[in-house]
Structures are given as structure tokens and as C-alpha cells.
Amino acid sequence: MRRSFKFLLRPTARQAGSLAACLEDHRQLYNAALEHRRTAYRMAGVSVRYGDQSAELTYIRAADAGGQGRWSFCSQQATLRRLDKAFAAFFRRVKTGQRAGFPRFKGRGWFDTVTWPRDGDGCRWDSQPQHSSAVFVRLQGVGHVRVHRHRPVHGVVKTISAKREGRRWFVVLSCDEVPADPLPATGAAAGIDLGVASLATTSDGEHLANPRHLAASAERLARAQRDLARKKRGSQRRRKAVAKVAALHARVRRQRLDGAHKAALGLVRAYDVIVHEDLRIANMTRSASGTVEEPGRNVAQKRGLNRSILDAGWGVFLTILAHKAESAGRELIVVNPAGTSRTCSHCGHCAKANRVTQAAFACTACGHTAHADVNAAVNILRAGLALRQAAEAA
């Protein structure tokens, strides 16, 4: 099993400057490689590949020994691979008819991670094991940086990444061969229905609260963004205002992540089998504004709904739930959500009129009444168990 571990770095002032310089040089390398590909194709119709650009790294490092030559060759190859993956994704979207999105140049605020693909090649985790009270990671050109390791690391460290988030630096370890930590069986199964009023509702009738972290910080964010709008571009005051807005968004992101971890852990501890809907969140939060020729309807209401869905963090919650279920040895089943909120869990009658309000369900055929989210969660559980039985019978 592969798992990532993220820890806060505590660099000295000199090390923080070196980390920033490393990030900037890798950003410039990324942009130069992108310009190389664009120019070669525009001027000569030649497609430049990763292998071609990787072979030129030796000459680039020799010509700029005090700049690009300071950093790990392996980490620079990882940056070139990152660009190559961006182009591969672009061509894949072109072939499937999706909105392509040609790879862009990275501005200073859009390149925040440097990766070392192998532990021991330009980096070393726990580089000073003889130290009795602290853990360090060694990064080439930076030195031994102290790490706030708040939990043990399991498995074999494969890749190491340094990431900047606002004014903080983090180290992210990707580990292989992480042993599973199965939980004792409970014999219970549950379907969960995701929502906005409640983050999730189980088929047992339990409602997991939706804290609405973004809504709680909306006033402070609006005030900080108005303050930012008044600042002159390029000024020191504007940089401070940008940092303040970023810090508020980072706080909301951490709160949402913490809530998702706690909610997912509670479900994994309580149930052996968990069934949820296969939601297309990107489609659900698509803008309803339309075009000039065909303007959308109820745009303001749809905008508010989109904001509420994104604030709930369904995607983050489901990702964390999948990881925790795998680690704990639980079974996670994904079902098609079509009709689950309109179908009666007693008689199976499906009609739009069954859903009286957002919270009330009343079947027009048999008269069964229930909380709408609980009724949907029961239908989701039944669909998941049916899929499971069909897979076992096949």
C-alpha cells in the first residue's frame, strides 16, 4: 500500500532563502522547457520530448553552476517530467474532445513544489538519526532542515517533496509497502447520501454535520479581499494583503480537511461495508450562466448552490474515505446515483413528486414518509449490496 505523510518544516532563515531559491530555479527551468517545446514546434514543426530535454540538463547545469547547478539533477528531471505529464494530459483531452487547456507558463504563485524522486539521490529522510530529540531531512543545496514529525512514518520512503503553502514549508513523503492496519469487524453496512444541509446521512439515520467553514469565514475573507483590491500592484503592502487572503483560505482548507478526516474515520470504525454515490462533482458545480445567445436561468441560485457544494468538500471527503477504508480493510462500493433520491425505499416507486421538500420524502404510491436523505441512503445501500451479490455470483 502507498501512503503520503506530510510534515511541517522548520527551516532557519538561511534555509528558507535557499528553499525559495530552489523553487524559483525549478520554476524557471519549467518555463524554459515549455518555451523550448513551443518554439521548436512553431518554428520547425518539431516535437520535443522529455528525453531530449533531460539530455540537455548536463549542459545547462555546467553553464550555470551557481544557479541550476546547485540543485539535484534528479529533482530537475522530475520538473521536466511534470511538464511532460502536462503535455500528455493535454493531448489526451484533445483526443477525447474535452476542453484541452494547453500547458501554461508558471508564475511565481503557481509553482510551489519541488520533488526528489528517490530517497538518497539529492535528498535524505531522517538525515541525522543520531539526534535524540529532532528529525531532519537533507535537501541538496539547502542542508539539514528540521522537521516537525507529529506521527511516525511507516513503509519505505520513495519520493520526497518540499512544498510551500503561504509562508510555511512542508515536506511530503510518498511511502511504499505501508502495512495495512485492519480494524475489527463490526458486521454492519451502511449507505451514505452526501448533501449540503448535512455533509453525509447514513442509512441508519445518522446525520454528519456540515460545518460550512467557508461561510463562517466569508466576512473576514471579504474584508481582506476588499483591502487587497485597494493596494497598488507591486507594492509591499499588496504582497502582505495577498499573504493575508492566502492565509485565510489556507485556514479554511485545513479546517475542511480536518473535518473530512474525522467524519471518514467515524464511518470506517462503525461499518464493514460503506456504499456511496458515484458523483460527478465537476458537472454538478458547472456554471449556469450560459451564453449571450442563450443565457442561463436562475444563475444566482445555481451560483449559491455551487458554492455550498464546494464548501462541503465532497471530493476531499470521498478521497479520504477511500484511503481510510483501504487501510482499515473495509469494503467501499460506489453506485450510480440516478433515481436514489426519488425512489421510495419501501415500495420502489420512483417519481419526482415523492420528494416534497429538501428534507421531506412522501411516497405518492404507498404513503411512506421519511427524511429524504435517509430514504436516499437506504436506496444507495441496497444498490451497493446488489452490486456486491452480483459480483460474488459472477
From TrEMBL:
Molecular function terms, GO-annotated: endonuclease activity
Domain Probable transposase IS891/IS1136/IS1341: 181-287
Keywords carried by this UniProt record: DNA recombination, DNA-binding, Endonuclease, Hydrolase, Metal-binding, Nuclease, Transposition, Zinc
All copies of domain Transposase putative helix-turn-helix, residue ranges: 1-42
Domain Cas12f1-like TNB: 314-380
Pfam families per record: Cas12f1-like_TNB, HTH_OrfB_IS605, OrfB_IS605
Keyword NAD in annotation: no
Family in the record: In the N-terminal section; belongs to the transposase 2 family. In the C-terminal section; belongs to the transposase 35 family.
Protein name: RNA-guided endonuclease TnpB family protein
